[in-house]
Amino acid sequence: MTAGGLAMADRDGIGEAAPLDTRERRQLDIIRRWGTVGALLMFVGSLGAGAAPVFSPLPGTPVLGLFPRMSTASMAVVWTGVFLVVSAWLWLGRFARPGRPRLVSRSQLDRTLLMWITPLVFVLPMFSRDVYSYLAQSQIAANGQDPYELGPQSALGVDHPLTTNVPNIWRETPAPYGPLFLAMGRVISMVTGDSVLPGVFLHRMLVLVGLGMIVWALPRLARRFGVPPVSALWLGAANPLVLFHLVVGVHNEGLAIGLMLVGLELALRKMPVVPGSPMTREELLWIALGATMITFGAAVKIPAALALGFLGVMIARRLGGSFWDLVKAALLLGVVSGVVMVGTCLGTGLGFGWISTLNVAGTVKSWMSPPTAMGFMGGGLGLALGLGNHTDSMIALMRLVTQAVSVWIAGLLLWKAFKGRIKAVNGLGAGLGAVLVLGPVLQPWYVLWAALPLATAVLAKRFRLFAMATSAVVAVVLPPTGAAFDGRAYIVPQAVAASVIAFLLCVFVARKQVMPLIRRDPVPDAA
Fold first, then answer.
1. Sign of the alpha-carbon torsion through 166, 172, 176, 178
2. How far apart are CA 81 and CA 92, in angstroms?
3. Which of 240, 238, 247 lies closest to 111 in space, CA to CA?
4. DSSP-based three-state secondary structure for 258
5. Between the CA of residue 364 and those of 163, 169, 300, 439, 470, what are the distances in Å?
6. Are 266 and 54 a contacting pair, CB within 8 Å?
7. Are 38 and 46 a contacting pair, CB within 8 Å?
8. Across residues 259-264, what is the average pLDDT?
9. Strand, helix or coil at 311?
10. What does pTM read for this prediction?
11. For the chain, how big is the Rg over CA atoms in Å?
């Protein structure tokens, strides 16, 4: 770490926190076990509530075959596990709060995270069926066809084992992912072929590689920007949204965000905080390596490319902070990222077709997306006033307007970071949040694009409370299944009611151990 970064760490008190005392270590053991039990319940419940393949071996398996027949009970088991994991994470946050005189150690937090993740590695996919689209699109690439031109149904056939698991809405759409991700998926498809479950498992291993990158980069970036590393890891890597939607849901955001964060840390590794001094060859090499990793992240999912802009701002301030320094930084990163991206597109043999499919997700009209919701409301108002049904036009207009607003917000944040009014990494998190929230599609796991960078640089108690509450609420409101209810709307309320009762029963049974965790932490904040 640079001398400036070390001085920042000393000023903010990083490394000065004492270890947990005996009572707090006992409480930490309870929190670990509480969360591990929740993860185990999610593993068991996924056998009946998870997004199992269409041709699943479970129904004919002794004992395990009972779970698919009890969808409500299985979902209740999963939701109980969700409540246990989220509550354990909230309690763990007491021991990772910035400014607290005693903090959980890095090894204690790593061990806790490992205990919670291990059962989730083996669960059936939940919360989404996207991994089945990954498998089908990767198989198209493995067959030598163009996944940016053909959807699974056209390329593989409607009766293909991989096509049958893809949601109907995505069966005729080409892949919206970058060439690096599909090249990795192509290797997986060459290994697993038409075998669905091994393919899902290997894609989860790919996500875990990304999670490993996140765990490596978060504490290093946090120390660089004056945040206790364990605080960043708690809000970032241990976040229930990471556990549920990256590990369990098998979303490639894990790999893209991991590459982006690693790229930022590598680029800043040898960058001193004193502006205007000559840039050394070693520093340039680290910057080029970092920009390469960020570009690889964008070759998985394009939002990672925004990190190049904020990295350019940090380089420009390092060079002296003039407008021409900004131009130099832009040229440097433009050349590096351009060469890397062109090399990736050509080297994988997948070409540049992914550029034309970036808007594929926009074919879905979901109320979760603010511009789409505004379009629906505008169309409904037109119908109420007798002006006709212009819903599609209103959605297109709202999406155009909000995307323009998101570009303006990102540009404003870049300028403020360039002028030193905000930390560049904070601008990156806020910019990614604006781009994704105001985009045509919004999914719960998109929150992580903003939350993970912000976890490394924001100490404000108000932000961390907001991020904690948002993560907890989003983690529990999405039904833990990727399957349809086939008109049986009563399944969800019944499962929720049963899981709430089960959770409260767990709290009652373990009340002597749990009540001290629920009470307000008697240790005051230092700040």
1. positive
2. 16
3. 238
4. helix
5. 19, 8, 21, 12, 24
6. no
7. no
8. 96
9. helix
10. 0.89
11. 24
244: which 2 tokens? 């549920």
Give the distance from CA 389 to its chain's centroid. 37
Query: Cα(316)–Cα(420) distance, rounded to whole angstroms?
Result: 11
Within 419-490, where are the H helices?
424-437, 447-455, 461-477
Burial class (CB in 10 A: 0-12, 13-18, 19+), 423: buried
pLDDT grade for 318, boundaries at 50, 70 and 90: confident
Q: Could you give the CA distance from residue 7 to residue 226 in angstroms, rounded to a whole number?
A: 9
**Phi/psi class of residue 57: alpha, beta or left (left: φ > 0; alpha: ψ in -120 to 50)?**
alpha
Render 24-78 in DSSP notation, one character per residue: HHHHHHHHHHHHHHHHHHHHHHHHHHS---TT-SGGGSTTGGGGGG-HHHHHHHH
Each residue of 130-153: pLDDT tens digit?
899 999 999 999 999 999 998 899
Q: Which of 94, 131, 107 is nearest to 231 (CA)?
A: 94
Beta-carbon contacts of residue 459 (< 8 Å; ≥ 6 apart): 12, 98, 99, 226, 227, 527
Give the long-range contacts of residues 212-216, CB within 8 A, separation 24 or more.
Answer: 212/258, 213/255, 213/258, 213/259, 213/261, 213/262, 214/242, 214/254, 214/257, 214/258, 214/261, 214/452, 215/110, 215/113, 216/262, 216/265
How many C-alpha atoms does 430 have within 13 Å on its Cβ side?
18
Euclidean distance between CA atoms 189 and 141, whole angstroms = 9
How high is the pLDDT of residue 420?
A: 86
Two tokens at 435?
């781009």
What residue type is assigned to position 4 of the chain?
G
How large is the average pLDDT for residues 450-470?
Answer: 88
Say if CB 75 and CB 498 are below 8 A apart.
Answer: no
- For the beta carbon of residue 56, count every other beta carbon within 10 angstroms: 18
Helices then strands, counting H and E runs in the chain, come out as 21, 0
517 and 31 Cβ atoms separated by less than 8 Å: yes
> Using 50, 70 and 90 to split pLDDT, how confident is the model at 403?
confident
Burial of 321: CB neighbours in 10 Å, binned 0-12, 13-18, 19+: middle
Q: Which of 430-457 are b and which e, b meaning 16 or more Cβ less than 10 Å from the residue's Cβ?
A: bbbbbbbbbbbbbbbbbbbbbbbbbbbb
The alpha carbon of residue 150 and the mean position of all alpha carbons in its chain are separated, in whole angstroms, by 27
Taken in order 112, 118, 121, 124, the sign of the CA dihedral is: negative
